[in-house]
Specification:
This protein is an alpha/beta fold. The chain is built from 16 helices and 15 strands. The termini are far apart. Bound molecules: pyridoxal-5'-phosphate.
Length: 453
């Protein structure tokens, strides 16, 4: 067991601050960072991570050190085109200069809020978010992570309706905090934590009739439903696009039975699917909508919820602390990043760019499927939320590995191991797109031979 050694802790911190603040590292320093990073992960983070990453990178030897526009770079300057996009964070690219400039300006003024005075950027961001979202969505509450935003949405639905039950969907992914994972639709993520929130029923995604039956049955037996929660497209389940009209039908069910409609736009929102919000595809106004990931421009973590006035009940206005009071939620630095992100996205039509690039990818995947039908079973997507489906998980892993060997980062989805996502920044250069297409083609050819397909 390691003993407390504050002198050693200080020495270590001084060394690392030196690394961070240095313009250029020597070869010895790079080697040291490399070796110590592996050591630190094994001894102080979780040895499982390196094992897990090895499955893709074969030696887990790449240490990320910098990033720019559409790629990550390791300590030695090896570049990886980012088709994983941090699971959807990097819609505006890596360290987007326009967003970075705003964050740096805010950083030189003040970073975190007093917790007592009125912090103006929180108010401005809430207003901009309200202006950008459909219908009468109006009041925002800011959090730090996606799961935390989901917790707020779940709590608000109970506060506003007085109900206690939730209807979620099979295959859903809403994060891994206790409330969020209770809504999750994959057994292996949930089973170690039961009992969790008990008042939740899961119905088939995309099946509005099943949703209505669940709500109606609960009401009939005297239970009160607080809300239904759905992703606008199920991302982690393998980009499951619901049938047209699904969102509209769920909206009608929520109106009919007076339950809150919660739409989780943490992954689908902020332009990713080709419109600023995916609910725009059906002109649906949720009662509560969650956002995150790309909302902080790939620079700051910031997530949150926005709700209609009818959800913002007197109880919450009388006691603003009742929903939550996260110390860092909506801090000025994060709000500055999100405001600059809206400016950049709207000035440069990033949702439109996601649509254009996404269509290019789908066209290419169509060609590749014709050429390699035994490798690529299916593909689908909206904007730059795209997935490739393989006959079995091992083949998906092999493709991911082959892509990584060609310095293109992709990854499986969390709920469905047979599917691999393509979720790059919208600002991917033409040259990078061509390199990704070549890597895809070569990887499919390699895997076809490897598996005798
Ligand atoms: C739809 C959706 N909701 C919630 C989350 C959880 O977000 P976080 O990982 O920031 O907690 C995710 C993360 O992938 C997500 O895709």
């Amino acid at each position: 067991m390691m003993m407390s050694d504050k002198k050693a802790a200080l020495k270590e911190a001084q060394k690392v601050v030196g690394f961070i603040e240095k313009d250029a590292l020597s070869a010895d320093e790079k080697k040291l960072i490399h070796d110590e990073s592996i050591d630190n992960f094994n001894n102080h983070v979780n040895p499982g991570w390196l094992e897990y990453r090895k499955s893709v990178s074969t030696d887990a030897a790449f240490i990320e050190w910098t990033d720019s526009v559409d790629h990550f770079e390791d300590l030695d300057g090896v570049q990886f085109i980012d088709c994983l996009g941090g699971f959807g964070i990097y819609t505006c690219g890596h360290r987007n200069p326009a967003i970075l400039k705003t964050v740096q300006a805010q950083l030189s003024r003040y970073a975190l809020h007093s917790q007592e005075l009125v912090d103006p950027l929180r108010g401005y961001l809430a207003k901009i978010t309200a202006l950008s979202t459909p219908g009468d969505l109006q009041y925002c509450f800011f959090t730090n992570g996606g799961a935390e935003a989901i917790e707020m949405a779940l709590k608000l639905a109970r506060l506003a309706t007085g109900g206690s039950w939730y209807i979620s969907t099979v295959g859903a992914f809403h994060g891994k905090s206790m409330g969020a994972i209770s809504m999750g639709g994959k057994g292996s993520y949930r089973q170690d934590y039961v009992p969790m929130i008990q008042q939740v029923q899961h119905v088939e995604y995309g099946n509005a009739q099943a949703m209505e039956t669940a709500v109606k049955n609960l009401l009939t037996v005297g239970e009160k439903v607080a809300g239904v929660i759905i992703e606008a497209i199920q991302g982690e389940a393998g980009v499951i696009i619901p049938p047209p009209g699904y969102l509209t039908e769920v909206r009608a069910i929520c109106d009919k039975y007076e339950v809150a409609m919660i739409v989780d736009e943490i992954q689908t929102g902020m332009g990713r699917c080709g419109t600023l919000w995916r609910v725009e595809s059906e002109d649906v106004v949720p009662d509560i909508m969650t956002f995150g990931k790309a909302y902080g421009g790939g620079i700051m973590p910031i997530t949150g919820i926005i709700a209609r006035p009818k959800m913002w009940v007197d109880k919450l206005i009388e006691n603003p602390w009742i929903l939550g009071s996260p110390t860092f939620g909506g801090n000025p630095l994060a709000c500055a990043a999100a405001i600059a992100t809206f400016k950049y996205m709207l000035e440069n039509d990033i949702p439109g760019l996601c649509k254009k690039r996404g269509d290019q990818f789908l066209e290419k995947l169509g060609e590749l499927q014709k050429k390699y039908p035994t490798v690529l079973s299916a593909y689908r997507g909206a904007g730059l939320l795209i997935c490739m489906e393989f006959p079995k998980a091992e083949i998906g892993y092999a493709v991911t590995k082959a892509m990584f060997a060609r310095h293109v980062m992709t990854a499986g989805t969390l709920v469905n191991a047979k599917t691999v996502r393509i979720e790059p920044p919208a600002v991917l250069s033409d040259e990078s797109v061509e390199r990704v297409f070549t890597a895809l083609e070569e990887s499919f050819a390699e895997v076809k031979i490897e598996f005798g397909l």
